[in-house]
Amino acid sequence: xSEQSTILIVDDELVSRYTVEVLLSTEGYKLExxxxxxxxxxxxxxxxxxxxxxxxxxxxxxGFEVCQRLRSNPRLAELPVVMVTxxxxxxxxxxxxxxxxxxxxxxxxxxxELRARIRTITRLNRYRRLVETEEKLAYLAxxxxxxxxxxxxxxxxxxTQTLSSAKRTKQNVVxxxxxxxxxxIINDSLGRETGDNMLKIIGQRLTKIVERxxxxxxxxxxxEFIVMFETDNIVKDVSEMAQCLLDNxxxxxxxxSHEIVVTSSMGISVYPxxxxxxxxxxxxxxxxxxxxxxxxxNTYQFFTTTMNEVALKRLxxxxxxxxxxxxxxxxxxxQPQVESDTGKIIGMEALIRWQHPELGLVSPTTFIPVAEExxxxxxxxxxxxxxACKQNKIxxxxxxxxxxxxxxxxxxxxxxxxxxxxxxxxxxxxELDPTYLELELTESILMAEEGDEINNIISLLTExxxxxxxxxxxxxxxGYSSLSxxxxxPVNSLKIDRSFVKDIPADNxxxxxxxxxxxxxxxxxxxxxxxxVETQEQLEFLQSQKCEIIQGYYFSTPLCTKDMxxxxxxxxxxxxx
Length: 577
Known about the structure:
Blueprint: E1 6-10, H1 14-24, E2 30-34, H2 37-47, E3 51-55, H3 63-72, E4 81-85, H4 90-99, E5 103-106, H5 111-142, H6 152-169, E6 172-180, H7 183-190, H8 192-210, E7 216-221, E8 224-231, H9 234-249, E9 253-255, E10 258-260, E11 264-271, H10 278-294, E12 300-302, H11 305-321, E13 330-339, E14 345-356, E15 360-362, H12 364-374, H13 377-397, E16 404-409, H14 411-414, H15 419-430, E17 437-442, H16 443-446, H17 452-466, E18 470-476, H18 483-488, E19 493-496, H19 498-501, H20 508-523, E20 527-530, H21 536-544, E21 549-550, H22 561-571
Parallel strand pairs: 1-2, 1-3, 3-4, 4-5, 11-12, 14-16, 16-17, 17-18, 18-19, 19-20, 20-21
Antiparallel strand pairs: 6-8, 6-11, 7-8, 9-10, 13-14, 13-21, 14-15
């Protein structure tokens, strides 16, 4: 035989087991034996045989009960079972059929009959398994295992067929790409299982919504879905469909006692205006999706040729960004932090800048998100940390008063298993005392489920604090603003986001929020840093609220190393007003 089949013989009689072994010894089967029903069930699970030869009359668990238990086990329900009995009465055979037996043989064995039946059944079972395997492989090749929706491969196949039909019927074909806004935060804070369950629910909602148009819904990876359909009324159908999808996706979802509201961004391309090839339409819809996300999210955008130009610039940016460290194009700028009651510089924030050889100084808002997506933020962040620590030590060695340097940590950096060692290495390299280093973390970094993840965060922050490093929460008030993590995590300060500082004291709401943040921080024995201070009125308001540290253009823009050095020389011990 080309493939060895496994036969499990379950019989309490030694003579019967030996007889079967002799009769089948020349057939090339792998034979397994069990002396009773319990052992037979155990070996069936362990060896996954191609056929079970099962004696009916056994002490303890008889063959009928063994067969019934096999059929109730999903893994063994399809195992072919041939019952063997000396009983030749009709009642026993009927009972065996009711228990799930596939065939019967009588003792003593007829050699030719035994070989013929086993050969036939094992071949049929092998063929059945082959068909099931092929069906499973075909399913895996064409469908998403999480949601059961068509995957990218099947989508492209159906899209090609739809485009061919639309060409003949002069119809339009709409490709709508969508993903969930801030989905990574859900994964990070509530866990991947909750995220997966949300994707299933979203897939079900999408399918139900688009049924009336005969649309295809696909999941092509991560949290990205594609809706594809034909239409002869683009304006009506597409606008109605897009808004309907946005509204339904944003309906509240309850998962594991968490009430979650998630929004979506969508990009739309249309055949034939935006392309005549399926892959081109998908690419253009994805380009429009990126534009929708940068336009405020929870919205949709149609593809335009301008977007192609934006996508091309992004591609060029990615390629150039890979070389910034090797070509020494990055710089660290420093923005002073001033003590509000004395006006003295007590620290500075390290801010990365990209000095592009052709474009000049590139704003971090342009390249940092790209570096995050590309995974380059980890080596870039490490370079910023080492550079800022080293420069701070150089200023101290030059005789300037010791200042604290604040360095931002991205979520990807914080999740790196080597972060603690990276920080220690930067301090060793720079010879900077840890008490002059502050790490700024966003609120989302600290949001985690109970268990190992949150314990790991507390452990890391505690060790950083133990060696003297200070921990600040950046952009406080724009994220979760959770009191629970402020109580549990060893942090030193809160940094009020510039969006609240901008309109105080003119805007009563922003003023009230700022007052509340300062009061909250002080009640928890944390000090407060306000960034984005640009006017005398803002400064006076923050001073009245006892905000300890001020940062912003009112005092200084971010400065290159040379200019920051000059400011330190000029200011000395004088106050900065």
